[in-house]
Amino acid sequence: MGLIVQKYGGTSVKNAERVMNVARRITDAYKAGNDVVVAVSAQGDTTDDLIEKANEINPRASKREMDMLLATGEQISIALLAMAIEKIGCPVISLTGWQAGMITDTHYSAARIKRIDTERLRSELDKRKIVIVAGFQGINKYDDITTLGRGGSDTSAVALAAALHADVCEIYTDVDGVYTTDPRICKTAYKLDEISYDEMLELASLGANVLHNRSVEMAKKYNVKLSVRSSLNNNEGTYVKEVKQVEKMLVRGVTRDNDVARISLCGVADTPGKAFSVFRMIAKNGISVDLIIQSIGNNNKKDISFTVTEGDLDKTLALLEENKEVIDYNEIKWTKDVSKVSIVGAGMVNNPGVAATMFEALYDARININMIATSEIKISVLVDRKDAERAVVAIHDKFLLD
Length: 402
Ligand code: ASP
Ligand code: MG
Prior knowledge:
By secondary structure, the protein is α/β, with parallel strands linked by helices. It has three domains: 172 residues, Acetylglutamate kinase-like (Carbamate kinase); 75 residues, 2-Layer Sandwich (Alpha-Beta Plaits), CATH 3.30.70; 63 residues, VC0802-like. The chain contains twelve helices and 20 strands. An eight-stranded mixed β-sheet has the order 3-6-2-1-9-11-12-10, with helices on both faces. A four-stranded antiparallel β-sheet has the order 13-18-20-19. A hairpin with a 7-residue loop joins strand 11 and strand 12. Helix 1 crosses helix 3 and helix 5 packs parallel to helix 7. The mean pLDDT is 94. It binds aspartic acid and magnesium ion. Aspartic acid binds next to loops.
């Protein structure tokens, strides 16, 4: 018995039947003697539908008004879920983000939680009520509604768990846990029993769509034990927690990210300061660059290639074209037909053979590598989009089957 925070995603509450199913899970945990606080997402595709409605009227609507609109999705879920729990006969109350004391900064549509004023939450728990909190939303210092960015309900749940010192934060979704790679791409993928915060953070950032990466960051910071599991069965999920340094390096997962575009600046003068001027200009405009390579100079010219997200491509190209004289290059080439495939595992830096093994897997599958980046905990390669799924399978089976 203790305090449990649970989070249910949009697919877990997409219709009346699913809402009743979730209500039963919540009341079971409550009847077992636990205090239960639940963060819930908008039903099914509600958030996408609301965005579409906004676009019909004004595709350039202010972020403040978008937050006002999108926050309604979660408000529907909390009310319906509370009604379902009332029907089962347990004491319950639903709270919006602001009623729950979820205080954020003023960054509309991508707000960060600053603190949770837990008074109201505590007083409802003291009355032995199940508390249902709207995920994804909070309130800022102007008393305006904010949202935390797509997928942000995970972060709401972890923040609640941290603020209330919950024993565990259970993230319920429509998959059984965290897999070694996307099971839809790779039939041999399997569920991990546990994974460290750092590994999960990399997997989340590299395109594994299980957890909002900020929720993992926060779980690590406040040492919140996370359990990722299915709302549709009782299988043990995956625990995300501090895992003691293992001696043997283990590759834990393979990810694929299609949201990348590659830009090459060809024929840049081979003189000091060129890379600096290009990347400073890009950074100043708020664009993040991921993989980078620069060729060795030839005839006093060199090529610089890098990747950005697809969303930033047009903006980056426009910027580079505007500054053609200043940067001084011959030609820009770009493509969206690329994907980033990565492996994640703690301790890579001490295991020189890992990169070679990954490249061997790609060679065996006759897949060409465009770019490479390594860090302490991951190795990423850029491949042609058409090869990406085969690359995932080849790399997965090389490292993760034994
Ligand atoms: N409803 C929001 C979204 O779809 C937040 C969430 O589901 O976590 O992004
Ligand atoms: Mg989600």
